Amino acid sequence: MRLSHGFVPTLRETPAEAQIASHRLMLRAGLVRQTAAGIYAWLPAGLRALAKIEQIVREEQDAAGAQEVLMPTIQPAELWRQSGRYDAYGPEMLRIRDRHDRELLYGPTNEEMITDLFRQGVRSYRELPQNLYHIQWKFRDEVRPRFGVMRGREFLMKDAYSFDIDYAGAVVSYRTMMLAYMRTFQRMGLKAIPMQADSGPIGGDLSHEFIVLAPTGESQVFYDAGFEEIDWVGADYRYGNAEDLERFFKQMTSMYAATDEKHDHAEFTALAESRRRSGRGIEVGHIFYFGTKYSAPMGLSLAGPNGQPIVPHMGSYGIGVSRLVGGIIEASHDEAGIIWPDTVAPWKVGILNLKPGDAACDKMTEALYAKLGADALLDDRDDRPGAKFADADLMGHPWQIIVGPRSAAAGEVELKRRATGERATVSPDSALARVLS
RNA sequence: CGGGGCGUGGCGCAGCCUGGUAGCGCGCGUGUUUUGGGUACACGAGGCCGCCGGUUCGAGUCCGGCCGCCCCGACCA
Q: pTM of the entire structure?
């Protein structure tokens, strides 16, 4: 994108309503604009980051064997009556009526709908296990939306639903998703820690919240240093292999991790001091097993091995995709602005033409832009160098390639790494090589 | 939902107490200037002061109602 004709309305001052860092920076960097309380429009830069995050989630879900579907945002009330949740859900559910006065709702989640789909399409236990997911906008009419997209009313969520013959199968599905989550968050440059969560009467120990570490996070967490050190993406755990998954689950759950509410000081200090970590975190995902809570009342029943009907055991697995945009910024920013991890940055590189109209500057920046393509943002605005530096830092491109009259005349560019502030004067070719490596 | 606060050009704010027809900074446009970290000067565009009603000769300002948004708490991906 050429910034001179791009819709990236950066703000020099912070709008009064934004309190926390990610909200301020998302507004200032032109990622989103608020439409109503807890409802946001995504502008080009924000949408690009959102799409990259969504794509990483998608790739890791697919790698773990889940199948993507897309369910509607609007659901019939009837489905929710079958599970008994229509009356139980309360005012967080946005209820609507169509012209025929039929009761509908804007989906806050999809257990009922997926169970309905599954019972229509699957007949035999031999077709299990299966895991279906979608990435779709949800609406929960929060009493008090806040923190920008971190707690909006409308939000983009990945939710997956597993179907297994029995509890043992459900455990494998659960562990599979847990591994996929560790890999997903790692790829986004985040340190994620699964914390055992309250799961109600059904879940047993199969309910975990995924907390992402961020200095400004909402809750205090204590954990084993292993969560920061282990490379989940590279680890040799194989999906579809129950032993690998058990080994993974043991490694995961053997390390200490707790939020302040559940923190056990004695257990924590039993860890070697060098292994103890504490910090703040933001919840970005939640996985849990819920057995036959929906399959039973909704009549999801398949032919079992001995001809008798079986009721599948289910689990659900959520990731707050739009929340992650805010979460990543909370985890990675400084005074000047956002510091995007390479994998989720709206643009991987910002090319700064410090003097549009200068033949050498124009030629060099255009050549770089042509080679970098869509993942580059070319700042070709007729503006002061200072304004471009400030906006580039604010927008947080992982790399900046800075071209001014002096360096252009010398056939060189300045390459700046946003995360470290490190700068080097190099040839355009070697700048390209480093950015693309 | 309990408590608090705020709605005035795109953004940040003053003006309201003590009614007299709207102002500042930033941004935006034009020109000159400057040219590697938000340059300086000049000129200019842009606001039915959230909405409705009331009081008054006159309402951004006073009174009533409504709507919207934010913060703390309880609640939540």
A: 0.96
Nucleotide minimizing C1' to CA distance for residue A423: B36
Is the residue at A36 inside a domain?
yes
CA of A145 to C1' of B74 (A): 14
pLDDT in tens, A121-180: 999 999 999 999 999 999 999 989 999 999 999 999 999 999 999 999 999 999 999 999
Which residue type sits at A141? D
pLDDT above 90 as % of chain A = 89
Residues A305 and A354 in one domain: no
Angle at A159 between CA A158 and CA A164, to 5 degrees: 145
Taking the C1' atom of every nucleotide in all shown strands and the CA of A138, the nearest one is B77
Task: Report the SS3 class of residue A276.
Answer: strand
Interatomic CA distance for residues A195 and A386, integer angstroms: 44
Nucleotide nearest to A319 in CA–C1' terms: B77
Phi, psi angle pair for A31, to nearest 5°: -85, -45
CA A5 – C1' B30 distance (Å)? 20
Q: Same domain for A321 and A356? A: no
**Nearest residue to B76 via alpha carbon and C1':** A142
Separation of alpha carbons A206 and A172, rounded Å: 11
**Whole-complex ipTM:** 0.92
Question: Do residues A29 and A12 touch, judged by C-beta distance below 8 A?
Answer: no
Q: Are residues A214 and A323 in the same domain?
A: yes
Query: Which phi and psi angles does A427 have, rounded to 5°?
Result: -75, 155
Q: List all nucleotides in chain B with at least one atom under 7 A from a protein Cβ.
A: 1-2, 11-13, 25-28, 34-39, 68-77
CATH of the domain at A370: 3.40.50.800
User: B60 C1' – A4 CA distance, angstroms?
Assistant: 38
**CATH code assigned at A174:** 3.30.930.10
Say if A145 falls within a structural domain. Answer: yes
Query: Which structural domain range is residue A388 located in?
Result: 349-436
pLDDT at A27 over 60: yes
Q: Which residue has the tokens 């440059």?
A: A189
Indicate whether A368 and A325 sit together in one domain. Answer: no
Residues A186 and A319 in one domain: yes
pLDDT, tens only, A284-298: 999 999 999 999 999
